[in-house]
Amino acid sequence: MLQAALEGLKVVDLTHYIAGPNCTKLLADYGAEVTKIERPITGDGARQLGPFPEDVPHLEKSALFLHLNANKRGMTLNLKSVKGVEILKELVQRADILVENFHPRVMPALGLNYDILKATNPELIMVSISDFGQTGPYRNYKGSEIVDYALGGAFYTTGPSDRPPLKLGGNVVAYYAGAHSAVATVIAVLGQMQRGSGDYLDISIQQTQAGSPDRLGPMLMGHQFNDEIWHRGASRPPVRPCLDGYMNIQIGGPRGPERVGPMLGMPELASDPRFADPIEAIKPENQEAFEAIFLTWLLEKPMSEAWETAQKGHVASGPIYTAQDILADPHFRSRAFWEEIEHSVAGGFEYAGRPFRIPGEARIRRLPPPLLGQHTREILADIGYDNNAVKSLRKEGVV
Amino acid sequence: MKDNNRWLPLADIRIADMTIVLAGTGAASLMADWGAEVIRIEPSQALQPVTRTILAHMPQSLIDANKTWYYAFPNWDPGDHPWERYPFYHAHGKNKMSMTVDLKREEGRQILKNLVAVSDVLIENNVPETMEKLGVDYEELRSIKPDIIMVRMPAYGLSGPYSGYRSFGSHLEGAGGHTYIRGYEDSDPSANEDIYFGDACAAVSGAYAVALAIRRLKRTGKGGLIELSQSEALIPFFGENLIDYQMNGRITGPKGNDLYDMAPHNAYRCLGEDRWVAIAVGKDNEWAGLIHAMGDPDWAQDARFATQPGRYQHRRELDERINAWTAQHEDRWVMEILQENGVPAGTINDVSDMLTDPQLAARGFFEEFDRPYTGRNKYAGIVYKMGNTPNSVRFPPATLGQHNNHVYRDLLGLPDNEYVRLEREGHIGTTYGDNVP
Lengths: 399, 437
Fold this sequence. Notes:
The complex is a heterodimer of chains A (about 400) and B (about 425). Chain A has about 400 residues and is an alpha/beta fold. Chain A has 18 helices and 12 strands.
């Protein structure tokens, strides 16, 4: 049987909230053995963020926490105690990877910087994810989803031109940084396989945005080429209403009418000088005329039919789906994308699956997201603490 | 001079790169940045739209009528080589080699296969049909090189009802659930402009697929076909909303700049034209810091603002109050005084701010290069640091066919007379012919 891609990698996971947990989620989803360490009593802050069933907060029922932490084992550990730090070092000594996303001052203050940990485990890969990185004048600044996007991303140009800059949906900046960190971690693993020694990864969320292949890259180049500052409202919004929702159909571009005319059942549009000539086509009066024809067509069509018709005509397009639409969609169902996980307190849900599957790979075990401290005893047993030792650690508030 | 001989973790990996636009090229970039020899295979008789430029022969009038970032050739002039001057290409081209070959001809496809025979990975993100027409599929590649890794990243995967569907990042974002939740509460999705977050997300996911496959190859000797559905890479970024729907039957809608019950949490206007600062207060001590930074105004003592739920409930009133304060100050001053008081805040940087951002500068993020056709410019550099593995951009975006000599002669062992013949026959070149749109 083929192994999972990351089988054999032991990860000590000190992460919380979103960016760090998404990194270790991706590692866990492909076979790494992730040990999630949470502070006693309250645990990962994501446990308090929700959404919760009926909006009633519960440490074991946060949808955000559940989504980000399946496939990980969990234990509690008080890193503010001497014994807690000692246990962490024992875990790190046996691990391949340590991931953390504390503010940069935290790990050194705990006596857990890379130089110290490397002394006990020279092959260790330590991954630090922070808002602005471990160095530089903003090292001590506080970041957040929108602050990191403001300083590093395309926030300035996002949103309608007559309103303030508009954030992206949900927590995507943090999620993205986590996914980027997972790539970085595995690249470091490949380096470690060759060189035999570990490495220290310093990942700045601001920088993951500044280097992201979103609009910002071309905008940075275009600015240098023309000395222009790009603002919001630089392009025509592409989404239009249809009979039962909204569609994004690519009707513009120099070769637009060639494909869109036939899609609308009006192949003659492709030779209509108002639309076929790219210079004529972008004149406001002609854009409006084309828009009127297109909207007449679109408003009569349900989303599924509009999409199918557009795709039959090779017109790039997509529906504007809600969470409900995505869960119901037959395509994702046919690909067995959803993964059902039963959780002893929160119940059973279908979880969004993995971005890709490796053929022939053994189906990854599905562990439900850990209850706070669920595996404390067994993880400590792995490193030689017997039941009595664990009991006294509990008494001392270490675990 | 750059030190191009330093050790990098992917230096032993060669990637045949057939990616286009932003998602695939972004994935290849993340590998190239850490040392993989990424060879862009550029069809000599067919331009890859947007990837290289919009049209091989750009009418000046089209640009004059569209002076937006999407058409921002240097001085709004595409020149005779628009594919060397297009911002999108410059955004993804660094650290990658370029070879040309005409894949429409059988000989060109054979050259591609010869390159695959000496590569570890082939990566592509075309519409599945495009690859089928070329006759390049995994079974074929495996017969040439049994342990080849092939990473395909079509919009919806290779199976299921939408497998052949065409979507760019902005369309995927609709199907993946982003477009619906991005926007102001009082507007509908038709107010949203294009963003390309879907591309960025697919790019990191594609890079992750390549990295995992390389580890597996090194441990087991096995390559394989990895199929990445770009939409399935995006959907988990909203995983909590999907569980929320199952928990509560709730459909998450657009929330403007709100996030959880944080307040104040918005973009606030500052002194100057279109200047803004983002402020994110999520804790009582941050609120106290904000009040102090504002000079302890009386209104802030209002009991309704004393708790986070109270601040959230009255967040629009709070926004007005804070806007009245920020509007009197420069964005940088607001950020600095707030950070001094422990409040998460940042200037909403425009492209010019980004290039001079003190933090990115201190970390050496942008790197300057000279290059033919565009001169000296700053390029976004290596995204993260590895403490024991110093790294920087090795070379700027390649000109079309710049590495033909390396690929055809060094890697494929072509004799001189053959090289000259392929040049004459339009495989090897540095321009697109007049007949290429």
